[in-house]
Amino acid sequence: xxxxxxxxxxxxxxxxxxxxxxxxxxxxxxxxxxxxxxxxxxxxxxxxxxxxxxxxxxxxxxxxxxxxxxxxxxxxxxxxxxxxxxxxxxxxxxxxxxxxxxxxxxxxxxxxxxxxxxxxxxxxxxxxxxxxxxxxxxxxxxxxxxxxxxxxxxxxxxxxxxxxxxxxxxxxxxxxxxxxxxxxxxxxxxxxxxxxxxxxxxxxxxxxxxxxxxxxxxxxxxxxxxxxxxxxxxxxxxxxxxxxxxxxxxxxxxxxxxxxxxxxxxxxxxxxxxxxxxxxxxxxxxxxxxxxxxxxxxxxxxxxxxxxxxxxxxxxxxxxxxxxxxxxxxxxxxxxxxxxxxxxxxxxxxxxxxxxxxxxxxxxxxxxxxxxxxxxxxxxxxxxxxxxxxxxxxxxxxxxxxxxxxxxxxxxxxxxxxxxxxxxxxxxxxxxxxxxxxxxxxxxxxxxxxxxxxxxxxxxxxxxxxxxxxxxxxxxxxxxxxxxxxxxxxx
Length: 491
Ligand code: NAD
What we know:
This protein is α/β, with parallel strands linked by helices. It folds into two domains: about 15-255 and about 465-485, Aldehyde Dehydrogenase, Chain A, domain 1 (3-Layer(aba) Sandwich), CATH 3.40.605.10; about 260-450, Aldehyde Dehydrogenase, Chain A, domain 2, CATH 3.40.309.10. Helices cover about 40% and strands about 20% of the residues. The chain is built from 15 helices and 19 strands. Strands 14-15-16-13-12-17-18 form a seven-stranded mixed β-sheet, with helices on both faces. A five-stranded parallel β-sheet has the order 9-8-7-10-11, sandwiched between helices. α3 (about 90-100) packs across α4, α4 (about 105-125) runs parallel beside α5 (about 160-175) and α9 (about 270-280) crosses α10 (about 300-315). The site of nicotinamide-adenine-dinucleotide has 27 residues, from α7, β10, α8 and α11.
């Protein structure tokens, strides 16, 4: 639990670009504490002049940062990581205030991985390499170079504001690019703090932050100085970013959410699965693009699993950041609360709410841990990303207890893949062969076996289909932020 939970809220946030704070021409965005629904500060609603100024700083900085050695970039990122770690309490307090996340979980589950991810990319900067060099034609030598792309425009979401900023900037900076980043309108605070912290170790203008709304985001991704644009957010936003980028063929990097299927077979450890699904379904109030929310249960374990999940849901506490028992806090905004409760309010007659399905009394955007059974594959609670603490459970094979194990497996794979998303999934079974067969057949960028949700910096995070393209984390992400050049020389 962090000790410095009393860091006072700033009265007014400012943009950070060109190495300094800048008041916006318009201070106009309310920033709300979602645990109380009270406005606690304001942030600039940046417009073209501010976006231009940030890009001009980033373009200038690229002349310096783009020519640093990998060792210099590594050292800068390590210093940023060390300083973030040393100031963790301050960042935890600000992140919890701006998102309503539990203080203890933010300190244990978000800050340490964020620091570790920065350190991973610091090291990765040193090992980026061209894949081949040699004489592929008589009399000539060829080699490939990995080069930074230039200035990168990035847009982040509100579910993990600090961590998403780090997933975006760390590979971009490690590869030698400079950045203009727009955080989500509701959660600008820690990204601005990060920019100021990082500025001590980076040439002026290397990492710039402008706050604002979707319109500001559109200005960031359509700016002519950006050579690559990257967004984590909704499918709608991703499509708009890809369309904007098409106008001058910018490179695009998209992480657009998911609807993770969780396949629980008859031979799975149901108790362990229920505990893990509860944790991975309600973590961060279910506002996680890999959340374990679409459970597909084999006929033999369906009823037991529904009962276990409902019991776990009833034992799961939601509360304000200071509540040490809270597994999760409020939803991010009044709009997100409306969206989540709307899904439950519109449930069809075939659905049954096994636990939750309501808003607790009191202020803030809280929603109770919810389990819904009886849904059919086409129901919107199954097809659409709810992004809230709602777990749905369906039978792998509806109404046919006599199906063979092979039929159940084949049907489960079809059902799991019957989605426009393709980010994450998990399979629960004691049969090693089945675990591997099903993993091979699932159309998702990540498959977990007998677990759900852990991430490591070394492994890629990114989806297929409408979940987008491009990878976060890992060497794949670093490569995404580079361009490949072939140099050929006559001998
Ligand atoms: P959103 O996609 O509108 O917002 C995410 C970020 O994108 C914000 O910074 C926003 O200002 C920016 N943005 C939106 N439209 C843009 C555009 N055309 N050009 C540039 N930037 C743009 O998300 P939302 O409306 O806040 O949330 C809606 C749903 O999106 C959620 O319920 C959830 O399903 C999904 N979502 C997914 C993730 C994820 O991790 N993939 C994160 C947040 C939201």
